[in-house]
Amino acid sequence: NGGSTQIDVAPFTGGDVQRLDTLLRLASQFVQVSLSSARQLRTTQKLEALLSLLSDAKAKLQDGDTRRFASLILAKSLAMFECDRCTFFTVDSLNGELLGYYHADGDDKLQE
Questions:
Q1: What's the Cα-to-Cα distance from 107 to each of 45, 104, 111, rounded to whole Å?
Q2: Angle (CA) 67 69 70, round 5°
Q3: Burial of 50 (0-12, 13-18, 19+ CB in 10 A)
Q4: Over the stretch 23-74, which tens digit does the pLDDT of each residue have?
Q5: What contacts 108, CB < 8 A, 6 or more positions away?
Q6: CA distance 40 to 32
Q7: Is the pTM value of this prediction over 0.85?
Q8: How far apart are CA 83 and CA 105, in angstroms?
Q9: Which residues of 12-33 are buried (b: 16+ CB within 10 A; e: fewer)?
Q10: What letter does residue 84 receive in the DSSP assignment?
Q11: In this structure, how many other beta carbons lie within 10 angstroms of the beta carbon of residue 61?
């Protein structure tokens, strides 16, 4: 045979099928737990950003610095909505006028 080794292959038995079924179920559970953990981490990060926004917003508003307030909202919005860029519009709802807007990319640069 030129040094080659022949391997005897037997058909699957009922026990083989049961073992494969068990392995597939375990793999499926592992994937589900992994996906669940990733979703839980994303939700936790979003909640942390929201809580941080709520706690910091009052202080920024009292300072009267709208630029810093808009920067705070944009930074937290990027995290909460998992987006690459965000725009914050300031609107005079009584007169129906757009007063201005700020936008930011993921690199934390605020632009008016």
A1: 18, 8, 11
A2: 65
A3: middle
A4: 888 888 888 888 888 888 888 888 888 888 888 887 777 887 777 888 888 8
A5: 75
A6: 12
A7: no
A8: 9
A9: eeeeeeeeeeeeeeeeeeeeee
A10: S
A11: 13
